[in-house]
Amino acid sequence: MNYVFISPHFPTNYKQFAIALKKEGVNVLGLGSEPYDSLAQDLRDSLTEYYRVDDMEDYDQMVRACGYFTFKYGKLDYIESHNEYWIEQDARLRTDFNVDGFKNHHIPSIKMKSKMKQHFKNAGIPVARGKVIPTIEDAKGFIKEVGFPVCAKPDNGVGAANTYKIKNDDELESFYATKPSTEYIMEEFITGEIHTFDGLADKDGNIVFMNSFIFETGVMETVNDGLNQFYYNQKEIPSDLKEFGIKAVKEFGLKERFFHIEFFRTPEGKLIALEVNVRPPGGLSIDMFNYANDMDIFHKYALMVSGKDIGDFPKTRYYCGFVGIKKKIDTDFDWVRNLAHENHGHIIVTDGPISSIFSAALGDYSYILRSESFDEVKEAAEFILSNS
Q1: Structural domains of the chain, with CATH
Q2: Three-state secondary structure along 294-358?
Q3: How far apart are CA 383 and CA 365, in angstroms?
Q4: Cβ atoms of residues 291 and 349 within 8 Å
Q5: Do the bridges between strand 2-6 and strand 27-32 make them parallel or antiparallel, or are there none, so unpaired?
Q6: Which is deepest, 4, 39, 49, 182, by most CB within 10 Å?
Q7: pLDDT tens, residue by residue, 175-224
Q8: Phi, psi (deg, nearest 5) at residue 138
């Protein structure tokens, strides 16, 4: 079985996919722009071969690489990056090399927020009112319907980049005077926490693992307002979230892949769908799956890919929380770390700096906390945040 792993070195924890796949006898073929010698040794040991290109944005180079792999190893069975940034290119390569999975014609429904909204509606899942707003006149008509504030975001965008909360006419005028040329969707602003439905679906679309995180601060606010981040898992997924999540996985046709679906939970307790992401949740969230459940999700995935019995998943035992601290002028990460370990070291699973590419959303330094008691996780998180 030939598995082309796009950019296997990034993020750094994704090398665990390659390591687990090799253990299950999968032929892992790495494809990236990093020099081979710069790859971690355990990653290099897990790759049958690594093809380096000068520029991963150059599609011709990527095609030549996959063509080489096909010539040398035979038909490609998987082309995957597990990375939001490369989803469209992954699909294009699958289309050109006739590899199972999301192809070109699937991309609008899993990348364009306006298309996602229609799929959620098809599944009977509530969504925020919204529409694509090419002109300021369109926006004013929409705002007359829903009122201020509104949220404007790229219809085809990644994360909270170039996303705006618009509170009045002056901000609306400024947005249209300075906005990027890309197409934007505008939505009514929903107040609430972000509750996620994450997991892994098998080749038939059956959900074999599910998880839910609660983000006390939305990613848009974290990015735009420079806020610290705290989120944590739910040991028991609420029945309404599970119902909507299962419906969404079916509606979007998610098979043999991870997913990360976001909902707002309003103060009244209502769920409103935000967006679907057909990849693992970002940052260290996939590691939090393992910490919360005492398991190895990378190995489970490798078993699934290789056609073996993945067995049962354990019942979630721990609350697992992520704390991300942003660098400020007077922030002393070493001092905070020493203080955190002195007072809550028994529940700190790991801590360390965050890659700069994720820092806007997740912070510059992070902690992962784990305990059977949510109050203990919450107390430690508040201690770290208050001293940062």
Answers
A1: 2-103 (3.40.50.20), 129-188 (3.30.1490.20), 193-386 (3.30.470.20)
A2: CCCHHHHHHHHHCCCCCCCCCCCCCEEEEEEECCCCCCCHHHHHHHHHHHHHHHEEEEEECCCCC
A3: 15
A4: yes
A5: parallel
A6: 4
A7: 999 988 899 999 999 999 999 999 999 999 999 999 999 998 767 677 76
A8: -60, -45
Say if pTM beats, i.e. exceeds, 0.85: yes
Model confidence pLDDT, tens digit, residues 224-256: 677 899 999 999 999 999 999 999 999 999 999
* CB within 8 Å of 154: residues ≥ 6 apart: 113, 161, 162, 163, 180, 182, 183, 184, 185
- Condensed to tens digits (0 to 9), the pLDDT of residues 140-158 reads 999 999 999 999 999 997 6
Amino acid identity of residue 192, one-letter, is G
Q: Do the beta carbons of residue 15 and residue 9 sit within 8 Å?
A: yes
Using alpha carbons, list the distances in angstroms from residue 293 to 11, 165, 234, 258. Answer: 22, 37, 12, 17
- Pairing mode, strands 184-188 and 207-211: unpaired
What does the CA dihedral 175, 361, 159, 299 come to, rounded to 10 degrees?
Answer: 180
